Amino acid sequence: MADISIRNLDPVIVAKLDYLAKKNKISREEYLRRYLSRIAEMDELVHLDEKYRNLVSVLADRMEQANDIIAENTLLLERLEKKLDAQESLESSEGRDTEYE
């Protein structure tokens, strides 16, 4: 493992770090090691979060497109149904007309 040394830290900061480490019942070194590890992992988490948000956005767009297509198809089917009903009515009335001839 590599070593990191930080010079010229404000004594108030060092005291706060010592307090936080003691509160967690670990050494200052361990506290800083864990904290630095979390900072290093944060970039990856931010990147994954961004990818997830983009994916959700793309999926929401696709769902909206699908809903539009479904609505359009529903209208077309309703029109087709009306035309078929009209054609059946016409054929039915034509059949009655030929019965009387």
Would you give an account of this structure?
- This protein has helices at 11-23, 28-99.
- It is mainly α.
- The protein has one domain.
- Helix 1 crosses helix 2 (28-99).
- The relative contact order is 0.04.
- The model has no long low-confidence stretch (mean pLDDT 92).
In short:
The chain has 101 residues and is mainly α. The chain has 2 helices and no strands.
Determine Rg (CA atoms, Å): 36 Å
- Beta percentage is under 5%
Give the topology string: H per helix, E per strand: HH
Low-confidence stretches: none
What is the number of beta strands? 0
Number of domains: 1
Percent helix among the residues?
over 70%
In DSSP terms (H or I, runs of 4 or more residues), the helix count works out at: 2
The largest pleated sheet is described as: none
Q: Averaging pLDDT over every residue, what do you get? A: 92
The rough form would be described as rod-shaped
Distance between the termini: 104 Å
Which structural class matches the secondary elements? mainly alpha
